[in-house]
Structure formats: C-alpha cells, structure tokens
Amino acid sequence: MSKTKLLFDLIMYVNSKRNFTAQDVADEFGVSVRTAHRYLMEIEELGVPIYTEQGRNGGYRTLKNRVLPPVSFDENEALAIFFAFRSLRHYESLPFDADIDSASRKLFALLPEDVKPKVSRLEHVLSFWNPKRSVKAPFLKDLIDAAVERRIVTITYLSKNGSKSRDVVPIGVYANDGLWYMPAFDMGRRMVQLFRVDRIESLQVTEETYEVQTELAEWLEHYTVTSPVRLWVELTREGLRQCQSSPWFDPVPLEKEGENGTAGIIDTMIDRNDIGFTAAFFAGLGKEAKVIEPREIIDRIRSSAQTLIQHYS
Length: 313
Prior knowledge:
- This protein is of the alpha+beta class.
- It is built from eleven helices and 13 strands.
- The protein has helices at residues 3-15, 22-29, 33-45, 75-86, 100-110, 116-122, 140-149, 216-221, 237-244, 275-284, 295-312; strands at residues 19-20, 50-53, 59-62, 151-159, 162-170, 174-176, 179-186, 191-196, 200-209, 228-235, 252-253, 264-271, 289-293.
- Strands 4, 5, 6, 7, 8 and 9 form a six-stranded antiparallel sheet that branches. It has a four-stranded antiparallel sheet with strand order 11-12-10-13. The chain has a three-stranded antiparallel sheet with strand order 1-3-2.
- 16% of the residues are buried.
C-alpha cells in the first residue's frame, strides 16, 4: 500500500472514531507503534483535528467537529450538492453552524474548469426560492439532537394565548415556506402537536427520555388527526388554482364545471385544532370558495367578515 493511500485510509479511520490509541492504529494498518505515531502527526498537520490525552486511559481523541475525508464526485453529483447548498440561502436560521457560502466556494473551486462556467450560468436561471423570513430559530440543533436521543425538553412557547411552559419530546424538524416546524409529543396533553420553532422562547434539555412511536417521515406522510372534523368546500376555477398551490389542501377538479361555477371540491378530514387556521385561509379566498361543512368554519368566516365591515365602515 502506498503511503498516500495509507494516509487517506487513516483519515477515514480516524474520522469514524471518537477515541483510539496508537496501538489501535498499528494493529489496523500493520505498522509499528512508532510509525503509527508518525502517521498520526502527519494527518494532524493536514488539518485533521486530533489531540492526545496523557495518563493510564490516555490516547488520541477526535474533536467533535472533525473534518470529513476527501471524497470524489462526478459532475452531476457535484452540481446536485452545489445547488442543495443554494437552496438553503433563503433561511435565516440553519440547524448546524454551517457557512454555506464558504462551503459553496470550496466545492466550486474543486469543479473542473469546463464545468465552472456552466454552474455560474445556472445560478442565474435556477433557484430554490422561499420567502425571506426575518424571524430566527436559534434552537434548531438542540431540537434535532433531542429528537435523535428522544429526550424530553422543557420549552417556553409563545402561542396566541401567551407564553407557556411545555414538556415535549421532539420528533424532528422540517422546513416549509421559509419557516421551521417541529412536531413533538406533548407530555401534558399526551398527543403529538405541531410547533413553530421560531416561537420557542427558551429551551432546556432534560436527562429524561421518552420513546415516541412515530418517525418524522411517517408523521409528515400521515398527518395525525386526533379530533377529526369533515371539511367540505366548493371551489371556483380560481379557488381551485389557489388551493392547488397550497401545501395544506389537495382539491379534486371536477370533470365538468357545475351550474353554480363549481370547478373543484375539497372533501377531507381536518383536526379540530386547525379550524381557526382553515377558516382564515378560506376567508382569504373570498367568493372563490364556499365552505359547506363544518358549521364552525362558516360561523368564523361570517364573524370575520362582519368585523371587517365594522372596521372599515
């Protein structure tokens, strides 16, 4: 084995370990302990963040934010990663302390010279746009770590009823429309609820754990409706178009437009906790939507309209 390949393999070995000894390295690569020490010094000079600890249980340790070993990408792989970075530019907060611009520059520098002009041109014709949000979500990484370890966290959460303390177990976090959301099991209410991460005012991770029998991907695919209410809405052609652009509703177009101008319908189940949001959404569509059920949403829309009339009278 050439020395270059050995050092490359050693970087991969070190990157996969939290702690190890020179004897471990010597056994792994079939070299003497003295040679192992020398090779470890060489990769440390290359920037691999390792340090030594003295004493009976001493040895080598890797820093938490250790570097990744060199990886080769083909052109399409490099382009995919480059534009994945670009898709994060519109988010005010990210879950890891990553410098996206710095990472993009490093990746761009490694691209073949004939590919760089293509990337530069694509930047002007391709974008992963999200609304620019000024609100910050400083607890993203803490929530992800807690979700991985299934830890109970105590949060102070700002809702329409004011700030309240809640004990929750995060299932994960996801981004939508420029904002970060966290479905979590509420220990007090014994149910999964959805939280806006930027509305978390404080967070404390406890030592307690709780096993939630739901994964993030499963939750996103099958949004849990704990108190189901039937939602039935008739849509005009414009109302159908706007609902098709919404991530919350999946309208069904009619093969033939009805006599009353109905071009599509929504017939689904929503959670009773979402009635307020749903009423506000369809009130915003005006005459392009007509809610048939439930009565609670109809009453809220009528009340909202009367309040606006009084406000502008």
